[in-house]
Model the fold of this input.
Amino acid sequence: MDGFTHRLAGVSTASIAIIGAEPHIHLASATLLIIGGYIGGELPDFDKNQSDFSQNHKLLTILLNTFVLFLKGKSNTHRGISHTALIPITLYLISYHASTLPCSPIIQVLATCGIGISLGYASHILLDLLTSMGVMFFYPFSKKFISIGNIKRKNTNTTRFIIILIVFFIWQLQMNYGSTLQFF
Ligand SMILES: [Zn+2]
Done:
């Protein structure tokens, strides 16, 4: 799956969270969530040399891969440690907890952005999960590649179309049923 599709999915997931947020969130927080969703949407592919993320953020890619090397003792596998569900879940819990604390504005900004990154990250893993290769979803508990779909790379336009449809559908639901809908 290409970087654009992942970024689109990341931003869409953050948008869905904003649409469903109750009570409605501040514009600044919404912007941070969208930025986080954009970053998180492509972040997991730092493990692939030719990915958009690796090409556009070379220094960060080297740092992240060095960190993985330090953790695992060997080089990174594509869709391995960086594609485990544990990362977005942990990041979400830490960021959400930090966002509820009475702390400095910088921590609040980082926490809100962290929530957005976790949502984008989760969308990336979900999309890769739908491909025939799958991901190491349960790493470090299992190194088995899990796949729940058979999307091929050439179906990228279809995937983008489906993402846009889902966001439009949820937006319409929210417009029509507003206060009775709650996603979180
Ligand atoms: Zn990926």
Remarks:
- The first helix runs from residue 3 to 20.
- Residues 44-45, 79, 83, 124, 128 surround zinc ion (CB under 6 Å).
